[in-house]
C-alpha cells in the first residue's frame, strides 16, 4: 500500500457507470487499491506504489516515495532520501531500473540517484522482493522498477500544473541568503490523437531550492595509536605485528567544523510517444532528461593535526577516546564547490503480436550520466605572531584544545584554549595555500533486449525466452591544480587579510548540538583571496587530466533466460507461478595508470637514493570475467478466496560498483630528506583505487509469505526470507610488479577480494494496512499502515587498514585490531508507520520512518569502516480541495530536525554529525 497523503480528490466518489450501478473510486482510495491489487496479482513477491494519474505519487522525490513502501528505507543526504535499501540491505544488493532498463548515475555505484527524478513525473514504482527469470539480472535484496506513464494506456487528456514554495528555517539563518525560500514548478500534458492510435505525454519541472547544512567531522583516515608510548605526545601508530599485544586508542588525522550555504537547481523533462497502428503493433519511445546543479559555500574551522601533542588520553576497552588534550595548528579554510549532474536516458520498445498467442518484443535503450564537480579551496593558518607582527601568547603555531565525549551525547565537545580568540581575523593569515580540484564522472549504458512469449493451454500458460546485451562504461578523473603556497611580505599579508575578511555566514551555528561550544570563527571571502593572491578567481583545470586515481572501466554483459508460467489446481487449491533459469556472462576491462618515478641521489648523501615523479604515466589493463547461472521458481497457492500463500526460491547476484573496479595505483615516495639503499625502501605507500578482480556477490534465497486481502482497501501480510551468501569481502595484499626507472620492482598492494567465507541473512517482513470504512461517519475517513522488517546477518566486511588481512602467498589471515562491519547498508530494524484521514475536500497524513544503525562504505571501496547511526523522521502532508480540479497542498519534512550521525572506524567512535533542519512546502495544483 502506498503512502496516501497528497491526492486532492475525495477518497470515495460514487458516479454511475453505463450500467448505472458501478461505484467509481478515485483519489487516495484508488491509489491504495491499485497498489494492493498489484501486489496480489504479481507472480513474484512485490510491493508497489501505483497511481493511475500523473503527479499522484505522495512525495516530493522518488526516494521519499519509495521509503513508504514495505521493507524499503533510505540513506539521507542533504536531508533528503537518496540511496534506497531493501529489507534493511544496502543499495549495493539491489538492482534499480527505469522503465525496465538499467539507469546510470554519477555516484560510481549502481544505485539510481532518485533525487534526479521528480516524483510528479513518475507514475508507478514496483519493488520485486523475489526474482523471476524474466528480470534477467535482478538483485540479492530486490529490484526497484520505476515507471512513467504510457499515454495510450492512460486513455484520457490531462493538463496539469503545480507550483510550490519552499521554506527552510536553516536557510533563514544564512547571512545575506535567500531567507530559506525556494520554489518548484511542474507542468504536464497527456493526450491521444488519430482515433487513439497515437499518444503523447510530456512533463517538465523546475526546482530552485536551498539546503544549508552545519556539520562536524573527523577525517576519513583513522589510526590506532599505541597507548603505552605517548611520552612524546604524538601518536605512534600501532604496527600490525603488535595487534593484540599493546593497548591502543583510535584518532583521526584532523577535526573539522563546517558551515555550508547552498543553492540547488534542477530542470527535468520527461516525454513519451506511443503509437499503436493496429492490434498487432505497439511502439513506445520515451526520453528522460534531468540537469541538476548545486553550489555550496563552505567555511571550515580545521584542527589539522589530530595526532599531535596528545596527552591525558582516556579511552574505553574498544579504543574509543573519551577525553584527551591535544595541540594543533588551526586553519580557517574556505571553499566554493559547484556540482552539476546531467542525466539523459530513454529507449524504443516495439511489441509485435503476429497472432493471438505469440508476442515478440525488442527494446533498445541508452542511459548517460555526467557529473562534474569543481572545488576551489583556500587555507589560512595560525602562527606564533598575528598578521600585524605581534607575538601571541602561544610559543608556536599549535593551539591547545580538549576533546571530550559527554555522557548521553554522540557529539564530541572540542574546546579551544580560551586565550585564543576564534573570531579574530588577525590570527589566521600564515601559510596561505590554494587548491583547485576537479572531479568528472562519466557513466554510460547501451543496452538491447529481445523477448518472445507464447501463450499455451493446459498446465503451462505461457513460455517465454529472451536475451539481453549491455555495455557499461565508467570513467572518471580527480585532478588537482595546486598546491599553490604563498608567503609574501608581511605588509601584503596584512592588506589582503583586511581586504578579504568576511562576517561569519550563519547565526546560531550548531546550536542544536548538545555540548558544542564552537559557534563561529573568523572567515574570509574565497573569491577575494584567490583574486588577490593568484590574480584570478579560478586558475582553471590542468591541461593534462591524467592521474593514477583515474578509473576507466568497461563492463559487457550478455545474458539469456527461459521461463515457464503455470496455472493449475493442487487438489482443491488453485496454484500458479513460474520457474526458469537465467545465464549471465560478465566481462570487465579496467585500465589504470601508474605514475612514473625516477631514481635521484639524496641531497645529503649521494650514496643513498630517493624517488621523484617524472610526470609520465604507464597504462596497465586488468581483465576479469565471470558466468553465473541463476535458477528461480515462484508459486502462489490460493488457500482461500481472500488468502494467498507464496513460496519462492532463487539464486541471485549483485555486482561490485563500477568505481570499485579501478586499476589505478598511486605510489607515494618516502620522505626525501632521508636517503634509502633500494627502490623498495624508498617506496612509502601504494594505494589502489579499486579491485578489478572482484566478482559478483552470489546468494541462494528462499521466501515464504502469507497474504490476507479482506477487502480492496486492506492487507495483512507476513514474509520470512533466508539468504545464504557465497563469499564476502576481505582485504588482501597482492604482489604487483611496477617498472621504476627501468627496473622491475615487486611490492605488496592492499586491495579487496571475494573471500571464501559463507554468510547468511534471515528476516521477517510484516505489513498491516486498512481503511476504517466500517466506522460511522466522519471516522470512516481514517486509515493506517504499519510495516516492519527485521533482518539478522553474520556477513563480515573488514576495515582495509585495521581489519583482518589475507596474504595469498602464505594463504594465511592476519588478525585485525577492530571488529568487522556487516554488509554495507544492513539495518537490523526498519519501521514505517503512516496514519491518514480524509473527509470531503480535506486529506491529512503523517509518516514516521525508523532505521537502525548500518555500515555504509565509501564509493570506490578499499576504504575504512563507516557507520551511520539510527535515524527516525516524521513527515506531514495535507491537501484541501478548493474547487473541482484545484487543490491547495502542504508538506513538512523532518519535522523534529533529526540529525544524521556517523561513526568511524567502529560504532561509537564519533566521526561526523549533520544538521539540516525541517523543510516546508506549500503549493497549488490545477488539472483539467
UniProtKB/TrEMBL annotation:
Which superkingdom, per the lineage?
Answer: Bacteria
Q: Which residues form the TonB-dependent receptor plug domain?
A: 39-142
Keyword flag Kinase: no
Q: Where in the cell is it found?
A: Cell outer membrane
Where does the protein principally reside? membrane
State if Nucleus is listed as a keyword.
Answer: no
Q: Which NCBIfam families match?
A: TonB-Xanth-Caul
- What name appears for this protein in its UniProt entry? TonB-dependent receptor
